[in-house]
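Progress note, project year one: complex with tetrahydrodeoxyuridine.
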Amino acid sequence: MDININELITSAIGARKNAYAPYSEFYVGAALLAASGKIFVGCNAENSSYPVGICAERSAFAAALSAGERDFLALALIGGKNAEKTHKFCYPCGMCRQFMSEFCKPDFKIISAKSEKEYDINTLGKLLTKGFDLDV
Ligand code: THU
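Model obtained:
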């Protein structure tokens, strides 16, 4: 299946508008493309007890998994302090990379975006080498 990068980034930008980040003021949106063709979005949601908050990526995965999806092709991600202008590419934190490795193969695409026109594509295999695996 073809990956519509533009649509995926637009979805991540939309999800970022719902980010709840009053503590860090770092707003993140993610859009996850399932093999079914459906897109699931997530945003970060912080908590006054800081470690309780969740990242945008795991939020998107939780939405997709809750809908019965198990196969995934790509995730677009956009984040930063200024929602109007994104200066830097945002890459998934280590915890999210490990979370993705439970469901995604090394060729899973992670698209870090500044806009629909400016993005950096990586694979999970590149961003997470030697992740934890109980079967090792
Ligand atoms: N955050 C994400 O949503 N995704 C990441 O991959 C890294 C960080 C969020 C968590 C927290 O709400 C804020 O960004 C600052 O760390």
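Residues 60 and 66 are 10 Å apart (CA to CA).
The pocket of tetrahydrodeoxyuridine is lined by residues 21, 24, 26, 28, 44, 46, 53, 55-57, 92-93, 96 (CB under 6 Å).
No further modelling is planned for this target in the current period.
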